[in-house]
Specification:
7-stranded mixed beta sheet; alpha/beta; 339 residues
């Protein structure tokens, strides 16, 4: 346990650069050993001042760099499948940001590859499982004091959407977090999706169907609704309320500082997911490093990544058709027995 875990970080964009900072300045027991990004200048900027880091434009070359014993994948989703399979071939433990693989067919190939090895190597980056409020809600629901969960009401708002953001991405990029959180909180699979489309906001780019109202059905009759609004204009907000037979519990109401001045009060609203979930990301990466150094893999698994991609894919079909779409998963390998 004395030697630092050498991590190759694939992707040096917004998320990757933040993980490089986290591994260097926040997390104990690890160091950045290599970084890969198609933009070499961006990769070099992300590791400026760090010693002993090799920089690559080819992600596979980073996996084979000296001192690399684990991989953190923070590249765009379409690049994840190749990186995961390359890591599996080298038996390297992985923390892969969501989406594990954007399409369910590719995600299933990753499931089959890891199941073929016969042991878990990858943890998927659904960091809400590490958020203090989500963990308290999970413990409350698991404890059963509120009775059977009947509904989850979820809100997911962003200040604005980045260039190139599509109507489908509201579901397969943004709502994918709620998909995993709902499965985890309720211990139920999502079985069907319906998407309702109100008149788009005047603040949304031309042609973007924003906001959307997404309704999930579960295997034991609970309902999950998600308001996703990625151009709300005022801040980043994530809320979740569980309504149960004997009570309800809500998280996500207050995270900002309240400033009182000039006869009024104003509460700050986070403007970015890296602000709202900073502690969750820190705990997630620390837990991954600690488990990896013990020779273990914990946290959301590859099957969770496949399930999220499959449900999101059904959600995109529901958005396009206007109808209810059933979710039909492949058989679950024994490696991913329900927990």
């Amino acid at each position: 346990m004395g030697e630092l875990l050498g991590v190759a970080v694939l992707g040096a964009g917004h998320m990757g650069a933040d993980h490089i900072r986290r591994l260097d300045q926040v997390v104990s027991g690890a160091r950045v050993a290599a970084v890969a990004d198609p933009d070499r200048a961006r990769a070099e900027a992300a590791v400026a001042g760090l010693e002993g880091v090799t920089v690559h434009t080819d992600p596979v070359a980073a996996l084979d760099a000296p001192g690399v014993a684990a991989v953190l994948i923070a590249s765009p989703g379409p690049a994840h499948e190749e990186a995961l399979l390359a890591a599996f071939a080298r038996r390297l433990p992985v923390l892969c940001e969501k989406p594990m693989v954007p399409d369910s067919t590719g995600a299933l190939r990753v499931v089959e590859a890891e199941a073929g090895i016969g042991r878990r190597l990858a943890q998927i980056g659904f960091m809400r499982r590490y958020d203090a409020e989500y963990r308290r809600l999970k413990a409350l629901l698991d404890g059963g004091t509120l009775g059977r969960p009947l509904m989850l009401h979820c809100t997911h708002r962003n200040v604005s959407s980045p260039a190139g953001f599509t109507s489908a991405m509201l579901i397969d990029s943004s709502v994918s977090h709620e998909i995993d959180a709902a499965r985890w909180l309720l211990r139920q699979e999502l079985t069907a999706v319906t998407v309702l489309r109100p008149t788009p906001s005047a603040g949304a780019p031309e042609g973007l169907l924003d906001p959307q109202f997404v309704l999930f059905e579960t295997e034991r009759g609970a309902l999950v609704d998600v308001e996703v609004f990625v151009n709300c204009g005022f801040g980043y907000q994530v809320r979740c309320e569980a309504v149960c037979e004997a009570g309800s519990a809500r998280i996500g109401d207050g995270h900002g500082m309240v400033v009182t001045t000039g006869g009024g009060a104003r509460e700050e609203v986070a403007q970015d997911y890296l602000v709202r979930f900073a502690d969750a990301y820190d705990r997630e990466v620390q837990a991954w490093v600690d488990a990896t150094r013990r020779g273990e893999v914990t946290g959301p698994d590859v099957w969770d990544g496949y399930a999220a991609s499959l449900v999101a894919e059904a959600g995109v079909r529901a958005l396009r058709t206007g109808g209810r779409v059933a979710v039909e998963p492949a058989p679950r390998p024994a490696l991913y027995a329900a927990r």
